C-alpha cells in the first residue's frame, strides 16, 4: 500500500521560508519521479515543481522560479520543497505526488497523492 505523507506546512509571514517534506512508502522510491502540486482556494490544482528519479529538478510555475527548490533523499524515501521569499499568493494546500514518468519535461502524475499540507503566507 502506497503512502505519501507531507509535513512542514504552517503560517509564515511574507518573505519567510518553509521546507515541506514528503515521506513515501510502498513504492520503489528511487525509480519514481516526484512532484509537488498546490491548490489555492477556488483554483485548480497546479503542478509547481518536479524532480526526476535521477535528481534533475524541473520547474513548472513561473511564479516560483528562483524561490522554490525541490530535492530528494533516496536513502530516506523523502522529497523536499524549499520555499523562500514566500508571498501571500503562495498560500495553498501543497500536495506530493509520486509520478509515473517524466517524458522530456512533461510530468505524468500517478494516482498516488499525499493528504496535503496547508501553507498560509500572511502578516
List keywords for this structure.
globular; 123 residues; 0% helix; 12 strands; mainly beta
Would you give an account of this structure?
With 123 residues, the protein is an all-beta fold. It contains no helices and twelve strands. The protein has strands spanning 3-7, 10-12, 18-25, 34-39, 46-51, 57-59, 68-73, 78-83, 92-98, 101-103, 106-108, 117-121. A six-stranded mixed beta sheet has the order 2-12-9-4-5-6, with no helix packed on it. It has a four-stranded antiparallel beta sheet with strand order 1-3-8-7, with no helix packed on it. The protein has a two-stranded antiparallel ribbon with strand order 10-11. The radius of gyration is 13 Å and the shape is globular.
Q: Helices and strands in order, then pairings?
A:
Elements: E1 3-7, E2 10-12, E3 18-25, E4 34-39, E5 46-51, E6 57-59, E7 68-73, E8 78-83, E9 92-98, E10 101-103, E11 106-108, E12 117-121
Parallel strand pairs: 2-12
Antiparallel strand pairs: 1-3, 3-8, 4-5, 4-9, 5-6, 7-8, 9-12, 10-11
* Separate helix tally: 0
Helix content: under 10%
Approximate shape = globular
- Structural class given helices, strands, pairing? mainly beta
Order of helices and strands: EEEEEEEEEEEE
- What is the terminal separation in angstroms? 40 Å
Radius of gyration: 13 Å
Q: What is the number of E strands? A: 12
Proportion of residues in extended strands: over 45%
Low-confidence stretches: none
Q: Give the averaged pLDDT, no decimals.
A: 96
